[in-house]
């Protein structure tokens, strides 16, 4: 993968405005789109962020104290 690309799950449904926001976001090597919820299910792909909002870990098995968000299944690389 030597060029910009979008990767998203086949069962991911999102508003087109999210895609526009991601493409126009501040450049980063990889952008993982996340959602914040009050609780996370065992099947959620959980995300831990650092103090800058950058991804530290992505896993379904993060402990409750590590979870900051869940991946919505949309990744952008440039």
The average pLDDT value, as a whole number, equals 92
User: Mind telling me the C-alpha Rg?
Assistant: 13 Å
- pLDDT under 50 segments (min length 5)? none
Please, how many helices? 1
Alpha-beta content class: mainly beta
Describe the structure.
It is a single chain. The chain is mainly beta and 78 residues long. It has one domain (5-77). The protein contains one helix and five strands. It has one helix at 16-23; strands at 5-8, 30-35, 46-49, 55-59, 69-77. Strands 1, 2, 3, 4 and 5 form a five-stranded antiparallel beta sheet that branches. The mean pLDDT is 92.
Keywords:
single chain; 78 residues; mainly beta; five-stranded antiparallel sheet; 1 helix; 5 strands; 10% helix; globular
What's the short story on this structure?
With about 80 residues, this protein is mainly beta. The protein is about 10% helix and about 35% strand. Strands 1, 2, 3, 4 and 5 form a five-stranded antiparallel beta sheet that branches.
